Target: Pentatricopeptide repeat-containing protein
Amino acid sequence: MFHLNRIRYPKPKHLKPTFYQSYTSQPPTIHLHTIKLDIPTSLNLIKTQQWALLESLTKSTNPSTFLSHLFASKNASYDVVYPYFKWSQTRFKVPHSLEHYCRLFYVLSNAGKFNKIRGLLGDEMCRNVIGRYSCGAVMRVLGNVCDNVCANSIIVDMLIMGCVKKGEVEVGFEFFDKAGDYGLGLSVWTCNRLIGLLVKEEMFGRAEFVYREMGKRRGEVNLMTFNMVINGLCKAGRLRKAEDVFEDMLVRGILPSVVTYNTLIDGYCKKGGAGKMYKADALMKEMVEKKILPNEITYNAVIDGYCKDENVYAGMKLFKEMEGSGLKPDVRTYNCLINGLCCLGKVDEALVLRDKMVENGAKPSLVTYNALMNGYSKKKMLNECKELFDDMVKQGLVPNVFTYNTLINAHFRAGDVEEPPRLHKSMLDGTVSPNVSTYNSLIVGYSREGYIEEANRLVDDMKEKGLKPDIVTYNILIGALCKKGESREAVKLLNEMSRVGLIPIQLTYNTLMDGYCAEGNLRAALNVMMRMEKEGRRPNVATYNVLIKAFCEKGKLKEANEFLNKMLEKGLIPNHITYDIVREKMLERGFVPDIDAHLYNDPITS
Model:
C-alpha cells in the first residue's frame, strides 16, 4: 500500500477566521446570537452533527463556496469534510463539482479511507458528475488539484475498478490509457479485472494492448494476467499469439496452471483440423510431464475436438483413458461422444453410450436428446426421432429451437412436407422463436421438393420477422434455381448477396458453375470462375471437378485435361471424385490424360 504525506491546501487570503475554539469531548452550548460565521465554529458544528444550526449559520453562502473554505482550512480533516460533503449534497440536492470530488478523494486517500472513495465512485451522482467530462479532462483536474503521483495512482486505479464493476468498458480502457500518459502506476488486480471485461466484451485487441502496456510500464503481472490474455487470444483464434504469451509467461518465471493448459488446449480443439488436434494432444502430454494433472475440463475439450474432427475413435480412446485415471466422465463428456457418433451415422453405438451414461448416474440432457434426434434424422428414421422428442418432453425437458429444427429436417428427409409447417406454426404460437436455421431448414426442404414459390414466401416471411437471410439461405436458393435450370435467375441472387453485404463462399460459385454446366453453357461457367477469382475466392478441388466433368461430357477431353493440370499446378490434391471422373470420363473412353505424372504422385509428398 502506498504511504501518502498529508496534503495541505493553501488558505485563501480573503478568509480571515474571527476566532478559534478548541474542541472538547462534550460539545459546548452554542447560542445563535453570539456566533459569527467562521470555519472553526463550523467545523465544530459539523463534528457534533448540528446540521440545522450549521444551515442557519451558512445561509449567507452556498454549499460549494463553503466547501472550498473547508478544503482550505488547516483543521478540516476527512471526518469533517466527508460528512459535510454528503450532508450538503443530500440536503440541497445539488451535485458538487468535479474539482471538489477530486479534492475529497485526496483527503480520503491521505486518511487511508479507500472504502469511502469506492463508495463515492459507486454513487450515481458522482458517476454523473465524472461522466460529464472526458477521461483526459478528469485526469487534468486530478493533476491540478495535487501532483502527488502515489495518490493519483490510487484514485485512478479505483476509478478504473469502478468502471469495470459497472461494465463501462470503454471508459475504463480510456482511463487506463491516460494513466500511462501521466506516469501513474496501477494495481495488477485492477488491470486483470479490466482485461477480463475486455475479453468478455470480445475486445481482444484491447485486452492484448493492456497486457503489453503493463509490461512497458513495468507493472506487476501474475498468473491470472497470463491466463486471461491467453483466453482472449484463443477466443479470437490467434493461437500463435497465445503461444507467444505462454512463452513470455515461462520467461518471467511464472509456472502455468491447469487453467493455462486447458485454455490453450481448448483453443486448438475449437480451431479443429488434424494439425490443431495434434498440437492439443502434445500440450496435454506436456502438462502431464510437468506434473500438472489433466482434469475433466481437459479431457472434455480434447474429446470434443476429436469428435468434431470426425475422429470419434481417438475420442473414445481418450474416454477410456479418462476413466482409467480415476476421473468421472460428466454429461458433457458423454454428449461430445454421442454427438460425434450420431454425426457419423452410428446411432446404435450412441444409444449404447447413452445407456452407460444413465448407469453411471449422469442424466441425459437436452443436448443428449438433440444429438440422438439428429442422428435419427440423418438416417431418415422419422418415427424413432419423434419417439425421442416425446420422451424428452416426458422427462421434463423443454425443447429448444435446435430440437424443432432437427424435427423439421427429419420430416423433410422422410419425404413428409405436411408436418414441417405445423411445427413451424407451433413454434410461433409457443415460446420458441424460429431462427434463421429454422427458415433455412424449411426453405431447403421445400426447394428439394420443387416448391420454389413456397421457399421464396418463407424468405419474405423471415425478413418481415426481422431475420436476415444468411450465406446458407442464398446457397440453398441458388442451388434450387440451378437444379431447375434457371442459372440466370441464380446470378441475380449472387448479385443481391453482394448488395446486402454477404460475401459468397466457394460453394456459392461452384453451385452456380455446376448449374451452367448442366445447362451446357460452359462459357458462362468459366465467366463465373473468373468472377470468383476477381472477388478474391480461390478455386478449390470441387471447382475444377465441376469443369473437368463438364468438358469431358461435352467431348472436350483436351480442355478437360488442361483444367486437370491447372488444378495440380496450383498445389490442389485430387480427391476421390477427381479420380472417378478421370477413370469414367477419360480412361474408359480411351483418353489417357497428359498430367506429367502429377496425378499418380503420393498426395503427401506432392
In short: The radius of gyration is 36 Å. The longest helix spans residues 149-165. Residues 1-37, 599-606 have pLDDT under 50 and may be disordered.
